[in-house]
């Protein structure tokens, strides 16, 4: 069916603010591992965050996404369908407990693959809403546009994610 709810992805992520040269600038490496129905993968990234004012900061991320399994590429060969990703996080603090983030991300296929839009690159745009319960718990709700799908329905792809972050 074309309009059914599916689950097929799990992820765990970690990061650490390694270098903070000023009270406004932070450089932070991170990484994640994931699993899905066709195999596992991971990513490493580097974030640079700048706090412009108390209610707004911007993060720029460079990330490499790797799949631990092979897929058939456009030439019929087996290869890893990896991507290089550049993203920005426009973080707005609305109140002491409520925040909003606008996240445009640009993905480029590393090997001979196309994204679901039929090109070797695509955009994903996310709107994230968070509510801080306390110093440890931060539930969130995300609405994401995953670019236009070429097959089989030739329509926009969207994703909804609901989750909770826990801070140690």
TrEMBL record:
Location of this chain's protein in the cell: Cell outer membrane
InterPro entries: Bact_OM_Channel_sf, Oligogalacturonate-sp_porin
Keyword set, alphabetical order: Cell outer membrane, Ion transport, Membrane, Porin, Signal, Sugar transport, Transmembrane, Transmembrane beta strand, Transport
Listed GO biological process terms: monoatomic ion transport; oligosaccharide transport
Ion transport is among the record's keywords: yes
Main location: membrane
Coiled coil start-end: none
Gene Ontology MF term list: porin activity
Name the record gives this protein: Porin OmpL
Taxonomic source organism: Escherichia coli
Lineage: Bacteria, Pseudomonadati, Pseudomonadota, Gammaproteobacteria, Enterobacterales
């Amino acid at each position: 069916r074309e309009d059914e709810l599916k689950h097929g992805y799990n992820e765990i992520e970690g990061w650490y603010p390694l270098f903070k040269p000023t009270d406004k600038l932070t450089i932070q490496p991170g990484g994640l591992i994931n699993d899905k129905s066709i195999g596992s993968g991971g990513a490493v990234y580097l974030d640079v965050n700048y706090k412009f004012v108390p209610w707004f900061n911007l993060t720029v991320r460079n990330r490499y996404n790797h799949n631990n399994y092979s897929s058939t590429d456009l030439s019929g060969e087996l290869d890893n369908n990896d991507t290089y990703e550049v993203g920005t996080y426009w973080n707005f603090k609305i109140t002491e407990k409520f925040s909003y983030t606008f996240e445009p991300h640009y993905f480029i296929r590393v090997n001979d693959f196309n994204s679901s839009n039929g090109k070797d690159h695509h955009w994903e745009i996310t709107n994230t809403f968070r509510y801080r319960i306390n110093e440890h718990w931060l539930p969130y709700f995300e609405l994401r546009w995953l670019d236009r799908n070429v097959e089989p329905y030739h329509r926009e792809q969207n994703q909804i994610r609901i989750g909770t972050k826990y801070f140690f």
